[in-house]
Amino acid sequence: MKNKFIRSSLILMVGAALTKIFSFFIRIYFTRIIGPDGIDIYSIIMPTFSLLIAITQLGFPIAISHIIAKGEKRGKNVILSVIPISILLNIFLICITVISAHYLSHNLLHEPRAEMPLICLSLVLPFISISSIIRGYFFGKQQMLPHTLSNIVEQVIKLIIVLFLLPHLLKYGTIIAVSGYILINIISEIISIIIFLLFLPKKFTISKEDIKPDLGTIKEVLGVGLPSVGSRIIGNIGFFFEPIMLTFIMMLVGYESSYIISEYAIYNTYVIGLLIVPTFFITSLSTAIIPEVSKYSHNKIKVKRIFKKVMFLSLILGIATNIFIFVSAEFILKLIFNTTKGVTYIKVLAPFFILYYLEAPMASILQALGYAKHQVATTTIGIIVKLTMIILLSLLKIGIYSLIFAEVFFILIVVILNYLQIKKILRSS
Fold it and tell me: Looking at the 3D structure of the chain, how many domains does it have?
């Protein structure tokens, strides 16, 4: 079991590193060719996109991984029971997004040009959902190669399409280019789904009887998935309201909307974009430990060992990478994005992002131990504090620093509360 866990973790880390390299090239090319206006539009709609993805996945990947890892349900039965629910949910979300896109872009985000990209991003959701459902199946089996290969191929195909298509789309305007860039995700997700299907076992055949969803399985998946996705949805709701509240309050105290949107784009694209680059290692580790901890959930001594090792590795990586980013921020930004905007923001955030690297592993351990509700409560508290700090600090007219300081408070609260809860759980063994 130990060897399987280590092998799974290594496959995920190598794959995540390669995927991150390709996605980073895509990001660099996109930011350089799309221009400041395109970056502003794309950055302002990303919180909405993240929220919709969290809702449309509904915790299915984690739930499927958890259930299949326990070995009590057939994988085929789980997947085919979940997909119809997912399709109905996606149709509903597409309709809601199309109907509300005008109001959201004009009245809340104060960026009318975001209307078409908002509609386009809703069309990507069904493909992300199906891909994540099948991914959850392979995670439950602790077969990480299909996920790794699909991610790499997906990013390579996306890079090729972006390189050739984006310059042509720019001829028709920035809005068309941003919308096209979003829709490219449909092609890359289809590629990912095809690769997953190729890795399904030969005995994975579908008959008419299999198509009928099993209500018991659906109930179990939702029972595991909803609590586990709760914190993610809460977090993304906060992320969704972040630019809305920031724009509203800062405009109220005298800032221009163009300045706010531009600074927010710098924060999201350059600052956060750079600080989260090394998290591919943490994400891979967090993904691999869910089925592993689920198996040993009743063996607290084993879980305690896993927790200590994961925290140590995450902390070491956080310290090393953030020191490097802090010292070389200006050089890295110039090299990658051909700009030095956001350097001071990075130097404020980098020391606290060491703790950010601990968030994902602790969340995975809590979910695997059946304490997802605590994660929801912790995230809710963190989001309330963050949004409150954005409002209060924005009134002080300190610009985008109101968001930066609010982010620091959020990281500290979530990490401390989750750590205390895990220590309490493991101490009770």
Answer: 1
